[in-house]
Amino acid sequence: MKDVVVDLFADPTCPWCFVGWRALHAGAALRPDVTLHVIWRPFLLRPDAPAEGTDRRAFFAARMQEDPERWIAMRQALATAAADVGAEMHPEGPARMPNAIDAQRVLLWALGQDKLGPVVEALFKAYWTEGRDIGDAAVLADVAAQGGLDAAVVAELLETDRDRDTVLEHHASAHRMGVGGVPAMVFNRRVARVGAEAPALYARCIDAALAPQV
Q1: 3, 179 in Cβ contact below 8 A?
Q2: Which of 41, 38, 28 is nearest to 1 (CA)?
Q3: Per-residue pLDDT reduced to its tens digit, 107-143
Q4: Distance between CA 146 and CA 125 in Å, rounded?
Q5: For the chain, what is the domain count?
Q6: Rounded to the nearest 5°, which phi and psi values hold at 100?
Q7: Among the listed residues 213, 11, 18, the one whose alpha carbon sits nearest the alpha carbon of residue 129
Q8: Taking the C-alpha atoms of 198, 117, 97 and 178 in order, what is their torsion angle to the nearest 10 degrees?
Q9: What is the four-CA torsion angle of 44, 46, 48, 53, rounded to 10 degrees?
Q10: Is the alpha carbon torsion for 34, 40, 43, 44 positive or negative?
């Protein structure tokens, strides 16, 4: 088996990150001789979001009034891309846009316990498919447990500031590296892609990351 490490810059409240996550793994499935190792790199789409979050539907309703044709086209493109990779999304989307720092902390803890994949899946499903508020500590603890973490430990940690600064430093570091949007992926620190792509393209990124260097 060949190993490919993917540094994934993402925010769980980003719908295209959900699509990119699913497409990445679908692309890896096209290369059965490759073992994919994903390292989650926290990125905050809304670093200054209020702790209590904001009403998502009201926010996007206002944005849609500015340029309705553009937003309708974007929603249609998202729906098509999501369906292509099985990233099921609630038709109306989540009701709230949470501050994502706590969710990012949970993902760092999952990465540290080698449970990133199941927790990412549970988190994306909770937010995008079920419309749950992943800014809520009780919801996060429940979702973390679905991914194999200890709910009681997660709940206790969420009451502290543990790794909050780490998330913010990851976000700042991403900007210093030139990451301005997500999802962004770097394969074996050689091949970079920004934006959600089709599985076949990610498979080619894997090939390029494994190709001999000239």
Answers
A1: no
A2: 28
A3: 999 999 999 999 999 999 999 999 999 999 999 999 9
A4: 11
A5: 1
A6: -90, 5
A7: 18
A8: -60
A9: -110
A10: positive
The first and second tokens of residue 30, run together, are 């096209």
Radius of gyration for the alpha carbons in the chain, expressed in angstroms and rounded: 17
Give CA–CA dist 81/104, Å, rounded: 24
Which tokens hold the place of 166? Answer: 């780490």
Structure tokens at 109: 């803890």
Question: Token match 């990233």: residue?
Answer: 87
Report the b/e string of 144-165 with b at 16+ CB within 10 A: bbebebeeeebbebbeeeebee
Convert the pLDDT of each residue in 27-58 to its tens digit.
999 999 999 999 999 999 999 889 888 888 78
Distance separating alpha carbons of residues 101 and 122, to the nearest angstrom? 17
Q: How far apart are CA 80 and CA 75, in angstroms?
A: 9
Distance CA 179, CA 159 (A): 30
- Sole residue written with tokens 């749950």: 132
CATH of the domain at 194: 3.40.30.10
| Domain encompassing residue 170 | 2-210
